[in-house]
Amino acid sequence: MSGPHGYSVRVAEDPADREACFAVRKEVFVGEQGVPEDLEYDAHDADAVHVLAVREDGLPLGTGRLLYGEAVADRTGGDLSVGSLGRLAVTREARGLGVGVALVRAIEEAARARGLAAVDLHAQTQALGFYERLGYAAYGPQDMEAGIPHRSMRRSL
Q1: CB 10 within 8 A of CB 64
Q2: What are φ and ψ of residue 44, in 5° steps?
Q3: What gap in Å lies between CA 152 and CA 123, rounded to an integer?
Q4: What is the pTM of this model?
Q5: How far is 68 from 87, CA to CA, in rounded Å?
Q6: H-only helix segments in 1-157
Q7: For an engineered disulfide with 68, which of 15, 64, 81, 83 has Cβ 3.0 to 4.6 Å away?
């Protein structure tokens, strides 16, 4: 999938793509937001579907991941037809270019391809408007994750 500003989004298939995803997450979550590295990376990374946005010259611009199945049933209320979108991160220089939207849509497409009916996410409260514009609806109470307020959201596919 190509973006209008000289970038493309793809599923991260090889080790170099996955490392690029982790580098973006480290820059945004660990570097900018102060999330401890031991909280940022978890056992779900091994089985997740990672997506990566890259500039035409190969520079990584953003990433996100899709979790699904038994391993994440605790995140989706036990509903195996619901996937979990997470770790969505866009580098500072790429913000405002539509990278986040393209990543969310690529994750949703990956969810559809796996037969999922909906996608849940745990959004930082400052990002609620972004996800609402993409069709997600907040539910449940606000809670804290890594010292940052979050809300659960869902979108049917």
Answers
A1: no
A2: -70, -20
A3: 6
A4: 0.91
A5: 14
A6: 15-25, 37-40, 99-113, 128-133
A7: 83
Cβ neighbour number for residue 25 with a 10 Å cutoff: 24
The one-letter amino acid at 15: P
CB 36 within 8 A of CB 148: no
| Amino acid letter for position 48 | A
Interatomic CA distance for residues 62 and 98, integer angstroms: 10
Distance set, CA 19 to CA 12, 95, 124 (Å): 9, 21, 24
- Closest by alpha carbon to 52, among 7, 96, 117, 118? 7
End-to-end CA distance of the chain, in Å?
A: 19
Tokens standing for residue 82: 């619901």
